[in-house]
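To fix ideas, we quote verbatim a fold written out as tokens:
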Amino acid sequence: APDIPVIDQAYSKLSNSITVEWRAVPGATYYMLTAQDEDSFIETVVKNSPGTVTGLKPATLYRITIRSINSGGKSQPSPFRKVKTVLAAPILSVHSPSCDSIAVSWKSVHMAAGFSVSVMRSDGLGRMLKENTTNTSLVFTNLDPGTLYTIKAYAWNANGVPGDDFTYNQRTSPNAPEDVKVAFNSGALRAVVSWMPTEGALTYSVTVSNGLLKLRCNTSSASCMVPSLQCSSEYYVSVTAYNDAGSSKPTDAVSLKTIPCAPVNISIEEEEEPGHLLVSWSSVSFGHYYVVFVKSGDGLEVHCNTSYTQCHFQSDCGFTYFITVFAYNKAGQSPLGDVFNYTTAPCCPSDFRAVFTSSDTVRVTWAPVRGADLYETRAAGGSRLVLCKDTATACTLSALQCNTPYNITVYSFSEARGSNTSCAPQYVATAPCSPEIKNISKEGLSIISVQWQSNNEEATYVVTARGEAGLWHCASTGNSCSLMDLPCGSAFSVSAIARSPAGQSLPSYSVPLETAPCCPKDLILSQVTQSVTNISWSVGMGAQTYVTTLESPKGQAKCHTLQNYCLLGCITCGTNYTVSLRAISETGVTSSCTYHGYSSSACCPSGVKLYRLSNNGIRVFWRASDETINYNADLRGSKGNFSCTPSSGLNHCDITEIPCGDVYTVVVAPVAHKGPKLTFCPKKIYS
């Protein structure tokens, strides 16, 4: 066996091993190292010096021996050396409690008298921080935020011998982002939040809160879009940075006020002063001021800018106004709310003319006014009120009382607004009443005294004797006059009329009595407007005046005239009438004539409206007065005429393929079974 080797030195650099150095022994091929403590021993075979025994316990005293080995056997153990293993490394627990600090803690190490902990940036920049302590925790401050640091720690014993070290990499949490900006998109009710990137941050979280609702947006970039914001709200926006070490403090909250909501509870009313509208609404949160847009039917638009919740506008009669209210603040304009329309009362016909067509009939005409769908003419005077309603701009008031002052007023109506009751009347006086001859007496050979009943004021009476020999007249402001120089042996018809500044009365009945006059052979009725019918007839031999009457269960219309034609007002549309005529001679002899019945035309439809179907089509809609009536819609323009007739019972029809860019006149009228097409129904303009 080889010689016994001699240990030069033995030491421990790691807590689980001891290294031994010796001089080589001639003839030895291997060496056996033995480490023994009170509980165990460990052997290790090595080829040469130095050799290391591993698998040892830290901070433990070992007896170290060595033997040399060759093919002849083993030598005796060398003299032992006592060597203690170094301390075990502390096991670190590391975290970053803030963006500029790292906290290190560990459990106590057996036989440790103290600990040494060092911190340095992993990229080698900056200086190393080192702390010695007997505690089991340390906090390193004033570090760079979001930076990766390498932490190394070891324990040392009472002799100051260091043990194993422990290395750990830890990143500090990021700093809060800076320069937070909020860009608000008022149209989409969303916000884009941006900021300057912060060192070491991996992700960011944006929090948008208004106290009741909290919205979040997570991103790895330096901006984030937050959708679905609410109007009239104030949000507080903050940004937090994150990495594997934790989160930064939230940034200081940035206030974001969104656009105001659309105003509600909008009301429109006419003020006491004519021609003024008051628009009011409820106050809107975060609304700094309001703008009201009022657009009239002719396309003219005005607006009002105010910080209050009401606006005053000038208005005109017969217009439909479309009203929208917007609220504004620094963020922008509120969304579009409800669009309200308000129609003012139709205008009053002011330039109307009243012309007497006979002593008891007046025809009133006027120019059409804006906004009117229907007109009502009222004649107030005497003991009764005479009414006439029509869509036309003319009306005939018949059966008026003679020698009577009337106040005639034309009122306008619209379906949307009703009647304009502020229209001014016009004074009209009827002609004098016809005088009534009471007695004719002969005063001389050629002198005849005529006496009558005087029932008119400021009237002059004219008596006429008419016969084959000619005409004779006398006049007086009293109640009698004398006809002079009449030829003898002639038959005369004597009558009287009254004249005044208001006009001339109908002649009185003639005296003496003569045979009854002939009935006219031909009588023709034609409808002028929906409420006016023209009657004409052939001359009846011996007749001086005529009384025509149209009668139905709904009422009676008649006129008394010298002519062989007459305009009858107050005719009801769609009604069957019985037709009668009385021919009256000069002496008051009357013939009653009957004729075939007469049916007035069907009523014009109401509520005519036009709806656009496409670029080349419209739908005409109306309210039928009777479901059994067929209607025809005519569309006339400069580029062509079109018409449509729906099936029975329908209240609309479509007209297609019409040229665009034209102005058309649309008339919806009942379909006439006989006679010409009706033209007096109201017209609508469509562009």
